[in-house]
Amino acid sequence: MYISSVLSSLTVLALAGGSGMSAGALISSLYVFALAAFLGYQVISRVPPLLHTPLMSATNAISAISVVGSIVTAGAGYNAVSTTLGFIAVVSAMINVVGGFLITDRMLKMFKDKIGGGDARDKKE
Amino acid sequence: MDAKTYFIEFSYLLASILFIYGLKGLSHPQTARRGMNSAAAGMLVAIIGTLLHHEIIDYTWIIVGLLVGGLIGAAMSIWMPMTAMPQRTALSHAFGALAASLVGISEYYRHVVDLGETLPSAKMAALGFEVLFGSLTVTGSLLAFVKLQELMRGTPITYKGQNIINVSLFIAAAVIFIYLIYDPSQTTLFYVMVVLSFLFGILLVLPIGSADMPVVMSLMNSYAGLASAATGFAIGNNVLIIAGTLDGFSGFILSILMCKAMNRSVTNVLFGAFGSAGTDTSSTVEGTMREVQVDDVAVQLAYARQVVFVPGYGLATAQAQHAVRELAEALQHRGVLVKYAIHPVAGRMPGHMNVLLAEANVPYSQLYELEQINPEMPATDVAVVVGANDVVNPDARDNPKSPIAGMPIIEVDRSTNVVVLKRGKGKGFSGLENPLFFKPNTGMLYGDAKASLTKLAQAVQQA
């Protein structure tokens, strides 16, 4: 965690000192990042420990959105290397998209409040 | 912008909103499925939008990739047993990070090697971060998978100067990274950085024991997400930044929760090589372990008012989740109040026990968290420990010299009677002596947990 925070700040510093990428685009990316981080913290800290495994597989499926970057790389015909790497990236990201959402749903289906309206004593709280 | 670009950008915006809405649904089991359905719909919208991208000239590899990946993903999720959940999650972190780092490497190759362009520092920084964190997550998660699948021993592997080697390796990779930001044309250095991060991922996870896996899994979750977010910075795509950041923060929050549940810092988990030989400073234990028989335990359970089950990783290895539910149902049938106490780090990943018990049809209203159940322990007649060890070790509370001192535990020793289901007389995974086993009110029931629980259920029905 130390490592990642130090490196994130390094990256941000480097980005700030960087040239080339338009300053406006960079700033708006940082806005998006900061707001997503804030929102993510708010939303995810409300997830009960009960659902922490589904949470992990759900966020994993969602971050497989990198498939959209892979699709362009695989199909733009830049060069043979990029196409090959892009293809492998599409496969691995897609494993997570399909696998992630299916397994999350399979897990969530199992969480039941009570068995067929059975024991009323379980509903103590 | 032409109409197509507007449509693509709009599909990304919609996807981002649906992702956040979907995660919000996870705050309650009743809204979780609906939420995840909308998140999946968001993913579909984003993929359809991307397929219209103007740079795409050939769909062959895209379609083959989508189909192959989709089929593998579907097959894995349909046929994978629930007990293999930690392994699958470790693998999925590796896949996610692989996708991110490959896109990064490909972008670098295209601009610098193929077209001979100079990358702007900002783009190089994002690419470098993506590749650095992506690659170390790939190998780190793969090694975690190998350990969880028990293809190799789960005990920490340590050697002299390990931390120094790891830290210097990482510093070397980081220095190359920073140098590349100022001179992106050094292709050899770029490849060296990739290799170093792959290597670092392995060396980082090598000294970490299976019991610390919940932290490693959460960290890898976080890194994979951050790598995706960096991809978003590199190719200027907001939905990637948002989804990656959500994943990154989720993993970050989970790692903090896991560390708190063990009263340790992340640094200590990563570099402490916990559970290796020679760290045992547990209190010298006096007394003997008292072995008990199925019939005696069954009577104890059958005439109890409240019974609390404390599952640990042993429940998963023995596949005993259904057997424990059967016993619980037999007890409830007799009017015994049954509860399950779930420690945050029980098992190999966050929430591991909850999923297993849910699979066995245990209603979640019977699952209690650490803080909820501990005040009830003195009013509990029998606490049944199924394959858990460290999370019920009273040394964590009583012995400040213990390696796990300060770790919050489920205080089963405060209940009237304790029954510990254990495979053999050996020490637990961490190799620590557990004074709980030597207390006068503790009975040890040896044998396979699943078999013992089934016998107990039968005996309770006859009692």
Describe it.
The complex is a heterodimer of chains A (125) and B (463). Helix content of chain A is 72%, strand content 0%. Chain A has 125 residues and is mostly helical. Chain B is α/β, with parallel strands linked by helices and 463 residues long. Helix content of chain B is 59%, strand content 7%. Chain B has a six-stranded parallel sheet. In chain B, α4 runs parallel beside α8 (213-235), α8 (213-235) runs antiparallel to α9 (238-262) and α13 packs parallel to α17. The model of chain B is unreliable at 276-280 (pLDDT under 50). Chains A and B meet through α1, α2, α3, α4 and α5 of A and α1, α2, α3, α4 and α5 of B.
Keyword list:
heterodimer, A: 125 residues, 5 helices, 72% helix, 0% strand, flat, disordered C terminus, B: 463 residues, alpha/beta, Rossmann fold, 2 domains, six-stranded parallel beta sheet
Summarize the helices and strands and which ones pair or pack.
The complex is a heterodimer of chains A (125) and B (463).
Chain A: H1 2-17, H2 23-44, H3 52-63, H4 67-75, H5 80-110
Chain B: H1 3-25, H2 29-51, H3 60-79, H4 85-114, H5 121-148, H6 162-182, H7 187-205, H8 213-235, H9 238-262, H10 266-271, H11 294-302, E1 306-311, H12 313-317, H13 321-333, E2 337-342, H14 352-359, E3 367-369, H15 370-373, E4 382-386, H16 395-398, E5 417-422, E6 442-446, H17 449-462
Parallel strand pairs in B: 1-2, 1-4, 2-3, 4-5, 5-6
Radius of gyration of chain A: 21 Å
Total beta strand runs of chain B: 6
Briefly note the structural class of the backbone of chain A.
Answer: mainly alpha
Average predicted confidence as pLDDT of chain A? 81
Shape of chain B: globular
How far apart lie the N and C ends of chain A? 37 Å
Q: In oligomeric terms, what are we looking at?
A: heterodimer
Report the sheet with the most strands of chain A, covering strand number, pairing sense and barrel closure.
Answer: none
Rg of chain B computed from alpha carbons, rounded to a whole number of angstroms = 25 Å
The helicity of chain B comes to 55-70%
